[in-house]
């Protein structure tokens, strides 16, 4: 625990009361704050992505309908489909289908949809667990980049402190 604290200490945006609060130190402190805020937002986004997928799945499962659909256009992140419900109403969900990977234009697939909201539709037998890997990878990449930025800011801060110590010593000697 002590080693972790020693590693994190230089990355935390704290004002040191024994050093003068120069504009460079303020800029470094604010830069560290910005990196931490962005890291928090990236982590929150990843959590909300998985939570939203899970919520959509629960909503579909509460009042599930199953239908055969045709893939009108396919992409890695968004695919549009068309399906007909048992009461002979044709739907083309505006936002496409959830979990669209590995679909190709013209494919016939089965989909599960919320009968109360047929615009909420997913490929049959796919669920929120498919959102975990992309969400986690976004968070991990953000933390890797943020870690490098915080380490760089800590190095810059160390150099600023060393320069200020040298200039303070030279002022005291003269």
Model description:
The structure is a single chain. By secondary structure, this protein is of the alpha+beta class. The protein has one domain (24-173). The chain has three helices and five strands; from the N terminus they run ααβββββα. The chain has helices at residues 2-8, 23-62, 129-173, and strands at 64-73, 80-84, 90-91, 108-114, 117-123. A five-stranded antiparallel beta sheet has the order 3-2-1-4-5, covered by helices on one side. A hairpin with a 6-residue loop joins strand 1 (64-73) and strand 2 (80-84). Helix 2 runs antiparallel to helix 3. It is rod-shaped and about 80 Å long. It starts with a helix and ends with a helix. It comes from Candidatus Mycolicibacterium alkanivorans. Keywords: Membrane, Transmembrane, Transmembrane helix.
């Amino acid at each position: 625990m002590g080693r972790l604290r020693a590693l994190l200490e230089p990355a935390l945006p704290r004002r040191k009361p024994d050093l003068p609060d120069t504009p460079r130190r303020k800029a470094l402190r604010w830069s560290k704050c910005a990196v931490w805020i962005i890291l928090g937002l990236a982590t929150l986004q990843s959590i909300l992505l998985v939570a939203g997928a899970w919520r959509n799945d629960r909503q579909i499962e509460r009042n599930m309908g199953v239908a055969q659909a045709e893939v009108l256009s396919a992409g890695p992140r968004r695919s549009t489909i068309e399906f007909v419900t048992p009461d002979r109403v044709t739907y083309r969900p505006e936002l496409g289908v959830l979990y669209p990977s590995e679909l190709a234009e013209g494919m016939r697939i089965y989909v599960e949809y919320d009968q109360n909201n047929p615009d909420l539709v997913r490929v049959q037998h796919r669920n929120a667990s498919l959102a975990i890997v992309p969400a986690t990878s976004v968070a991990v990449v953000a933390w890797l980049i943020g870690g490098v930025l915080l380490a760089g800011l800590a190095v810059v801060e160390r150099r600023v402190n060393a320069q200020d110590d040298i200039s303070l010593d030279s002022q005291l000697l003269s």
